[in-house]
Every structure is written in structure tokens, then in C-alpha cells.
Amino acid sequence: MGPLLQVSRVTKRFGGLTAVSKLAFELRRGEILGVIGPNGAGKSTTFNIIAGTYAADEGEIRFDGESIAGMPPHQIARRGVMRTFQHNRPFEGMSVLENVLVGAHTRFGRNLFSRSAAAEEREQRAQAERLVEFVGLGELRTANVDRLSFGQGRLLEIARALAGAPKLILFDEPAAGLTRAEAERIATVIRGIAERGIAVLLIEHDMHFLLPLAHRVVVLNFGAKIAEGTSDEVRSHPAVLDAYLGHAAAV
Amino acid sequence: MRVVAWVAAFVALAALPFFLGSYHNDVYRKLLLWVTLALGYNFLFGICGQVAFSHFAFYGIGAYGVVILLFQVGLPLPIAILLALLICVILALIVAIPATRLEGFYLALVTLALAQLFIVLLNEGGTVTGGAGGIANYRLPPIFGTRISGPAYTLVIVALLMLTLALLWRLDRSWFGRACRAVRDNPEAAAAMGVDVARTKVIAFTLTSALAGMAGMVYAFVDNTVNPPIFGLENAFLILFMVIVGGAGRHAGAIIGAVLLFLLPFWLSPVVGHHHQLIFGALVVAAILLWPKGLVGIWDRFSR
After folding, report:
1. Nearest-CA residue of chain A relative to B200?
2. Rounded Cα gap, residues B105 and B90, in angstroms
3. Cα A93 versus chain centre, distance
4. Chain B residue with minimal CA distance to A50?
5. Higher pLDDT, residue A240 or B79
6. I want to staple A35 with a disulfide (CB 3.0 to 4.6 A). Which of A26, A203, B218, B229 is the partner?
């Protein structure tokens, strides 16, 4: 079986600025791949191209054997790529459980009036309850989302993405804005997701969070890949030390 | 159990007209129609978060459509109903498909223009629409050899209301209803969950517009007259206010808002005369400023 996600020679320009240049990497099933780099390295642009928010100017993105480059976000989600948002984006007027059920949108059959519709609803509701438990929000499942703390909101983002039964989850800086304890909770949840056989792509600013978590790391600087390897390899890579860490003592 | 509740509600609503005089029967019918309209508009505005001013115009298109097809064109009743419904659906698609692809208030602007254009067309429609005087002095054709009139016709309106509520209730508690709420709350996150945002908006707009058209067809045989002033723009705003005052996004809110705002002038006029408009305005402003979740929101707070 080939790689689950294959990004090849992807380039994105904003006016005169090349945000991402001829970027290529692969992601295997069940793998946690981290994408790191200093501010402005092109991490968010890369993320948004894979999620379908931006269209790449050049290059190809293949997911599960199919080209997804240029597809709108809902089509990409339908193929099994779910995402979280760096700034939590809950559906404000709904309970925690209903938010997770929206994540299961693509799991429902189209016919609302068929005999199986009620059974399907019950089944997805039970699955959503299990996911709310899995991320540790069980006691809050009927609460309105405005009662959640920022960290709990991040956990909800994860449960909601899992509800779509994805093959790949994209995490947009999942540790941003969290306390150390909350970040550790998120790291545990992400490991649990990978153990379920779901591939994980993380873009992250915080090395202390990412390096112990990722199986493999891609390092970006000025829109180009400057290094790739395991956390240990990347940690001691001269180009990375130079471009991103500034000085070796930081790690 | 749930079926029993629905049947009980239908029986209660259907039995009432047989105990009312003809004046109160007339008020009751219009009340039921307003509740039906408010329920449909609540789905579009309160649940799917789309601001449109064409709901009452579609009510008028349904009413005029069926009357013109029956009495000007001379089609049989079932075909006239289906064709009038088809016209509503096609018009709704023509309005919604371009408007929902644009951001923000374009749907509001386009539907406002449609509502205005509809009134102009009615007035300038010559013999087809009857111009400013509209069309009158027609009767509902017999159905299976019987003419439905009086309290029996009120049953038709009750059936319309109950079917509308049942359909919207079912949709609201399904993946489609959740997709609509998701589109309302955060379109970008909804898309990331696999919701086709533009398609969801188009379906919600077309469906609720068709429901308004159906209500209009039923209305056409309440007074047996259709004319332009009935379908004026102020009624488009009245539906919006009903939903806001009652509580947007909740079926109960739409029902309470429609009942209250429809009956308010009847209660207030004998006391304060035309000043009831002032009280009405103050109520709407108070609802927007003080009770953003409407009257059902207040009820929730006290019942908790």
C-alpha cells in the first residue's frame, strides 16, 4: 500500500510572495507527522492547501490514491480528511454532543425519510457519546458549548473531527494557547488517535510539544523544506539548528 | 406516545372552528396561516441563519399562482397546485443559487428586490393578475364532487399547519437540521465537517419558500380574493418580528411569536386604538435588546 497522503512540488504564491515552494512530503497510515518551522515558514499555508481552504498554484496532492488538489473543503472532508481549528470554531448554538454529531455529517445516509434513518441517528448518537467520553468531556455532553473552557473547546474540536471517521486528521497548532497540563492531555489524546490507525498531521510552533509526539518531522523555512526525519534526527540537524532554533541550547 | 400527542393536537385544533362564529373562524384561520408561515420562516432565518424578505412574496406567488392557473388558464385543481408549487421551487432556485454563492447580505437584498418586484408585477399584470383590484369572486372547485367550505375548510388549514410542523420538526432533528445550524453558527467549520454550505442554504431556502407557496395556495380560498395590498412588504417584516419576538431557532418560538403578534392588535385596538402600533414597535425593540432568545428564552430561564 502506498502512502496515505502524498504532497508533491506544491507551490503557493500570494502576490509577489512565495509562501510555499515546491514542497513535497508523504504521510503513511497510522503515522504522526509533525510540520514545524518558525513564524512565516509556510506551515499554515501548507495546512490550508491540504484542507482545501486554499488552492495550490502548482503541484499535486494525492490522498488515498486520489487527487484532492483544488477540491473544496467539504469534498475533502467527505473523503476522510478532518481538521481542527487553531482558534476553536464550535457551533455556538448547540450542545457538546450536537457539535460532535455535526462532525458525523458525512456518516449519514442521504435519505431522511427511510426506515433506517431513526436507527442511524441512534447509532451515530451512541458513537458521538463514546467520542465525547474518549476526549474526556463526558460530563459536559449536554452542556451548551459556551460553557467550555478554551482547553475543553480544543478537545471538542478533536471529538468533532473524529466523528467523521477520518483516515487522516489535520491538527492546526493544537497546543496553542493551552496550559502545560492541557497540552499534555491533548498529546495523550493524539497518541490514542494514532493507535486507532488514523494518520495524524500536526502543524505546530511549540517544539517541546511536538518533538516527543511526532514519529517523523518535516521542517519548513521560508516556504521550503529544509529537513525531514525522526524527532532526534531533526533535533540535531545543522540546518534546523541554524534556521529555527537559533542555538542548540534551546532544545 | 408521540403519535398520540400529534393526533391530540390535530383533533383539538380541528374541533375548535366548529365552536366558533364566522368572525372568529376567520380570525382563527388567519392565525393558523400566520403560524404556518412563521414556522417556515423560522427554519430559514432561525435555524439556517439566512435573512430573506421573500417569504411573504412566495405566499403571494402560491396564492396568485393557483388562482391564475385555475381560473385564467382553466387547469384542473391537482395540476394547478403542482404547477404553482413548481413555479415557487424554480423561482426560489433562481434567487438562491446566485445569492448564496455570495457573502453576507446578498440574499437579503435580492429577496427584498423580489418582494418589491412581485407587488409591481401584480399591479401591472393587466387581466392576468387583475391589476390593483386583484382577482375575486371565484370558488374552490369541488374535490371528489364535494365543495369544501366553512369550518370544513378550516380543517384543510389545520392539516397544512400540522404537516408543515411535522416536516420541519423531522428535518430539524436530523443531520440536515444540524447542518443548517452549523452553517448558521460557523460556515467555515461546517464545510470542514463535510457540509456543502451553498447547497444546504439553497435547499433550506427552496424548501421554506415552497412551504410558503403551499400556505398561499390554501390562503387563496380563505377569502376567495387575492389582491396586491394583501402581499405587501410590511408583512415580510412582520414574519421576521414574529420569529424574533418568539425566539429564533425554536418551533415553539415561532408559534408563540406568531400567535402573540397576530392577536396583539385585536386585544390592543379597543383599548388604545391605532396606538397599538407603538406598543408593537416597543415590543420588537425590547425583544431584540433585552431578550435575544425571545419569549421562549425567558420561559427557559424561569422553568430551569
Report:
1. A74
2. 21
3. 24
4. B192
5. B79
6. A203
Q: How far apart are CA A97 and CA A160, in angstroms?
A: 9
User: What is the Cα–Cα distance from A13 to B156, expressed in whole angstroms?
Assistant: 61
Separation CA A10–CA B209 (nearest Å): 44
Q: Any alpha helices (H) in B106-250, and if so which ranges?
A: 106-124, 126-129, 151-172, 175-185, 187-192, 197-219, 233-246
Q: Is B183 helix (H, G, I), strand (E, B) or coil?
A: helix
Which of B21, B29, B18 is closest to B156 using CA atoms?
B29
Considering only the beta carbons, identify the residue of B184, B186, B195 that sits closest to A105.
B195
Question: DSSP 3-state helix, strand, coil percentages of chain B (rounded to 5)?
Answer: 80, 0, 20
Quote the CA–CA distance of B56 and B112 in Å, as a whole number.
11
Nearest CA in chain A to B293: A93
The alpha-carbon gap from A243 to the nearest alpha carbon of chain B, in Å, equals 33
Residue B51 and residue B105 in contact, taking contact as beta carbons nearer than 8 Å: yes
User: For all residues of chain A together, what is the average pLDDT?
Assistant: 91
Give contacts of A77 with chain B, Cβ < 8 Å.
191-194
- Cβ neighbour number for residue B165 with a 10 Å cutoff: 19
Dist CA A57 CA A207 (whole Å): 30
Name the minimum distance, in Å, from the CA of B281 to any CA of chain A: 27
- For the segment B4-29, what is each residue's pLDDT rounded down to a tens digit? 888 898 888 988 888 888 889 899 99
Measured CA to CA, the distance from residue A6 to residue A27 in angstroms comes to 7
pLDDT (mean) for B99-122: 88
- Given this model, what pLDDT does residue A251 score? 45
Determine, for residues B192 and A101 on separate chains, whether the beta-carbon distance falls below 8 Å.
no
| Tens of pLDDT, residues A107-137 | 998 777 777 888 899 999 999 999 999 999 9
CA distance to partner chain A, nearest, from residue B195 (Å): 6
Contacts (Cβ under 8 Å, ≥6 apart) of B202: B93, B96, B97, B100
Contacts of B49 in chain A (CB under 8 A): none
List residues of A whose CB lies inside 8 A of any B CB.
Answer: 51, 53, 72-74, 77-78, 82-83, 85, 89-94, 98, 101-106, 108, 112-113, 117, 121, 160, 164
CA distance A215 to chain B (A): 26
- Assess contact for A102 and B193: CB atoms under 8 A: yes
Inter-chain residue contact B194 with A51, CB threshold 8 Å: no
| A147-177: pLDDT as tens digits | 999 999 999 999 999 999 999 999 999 998 8
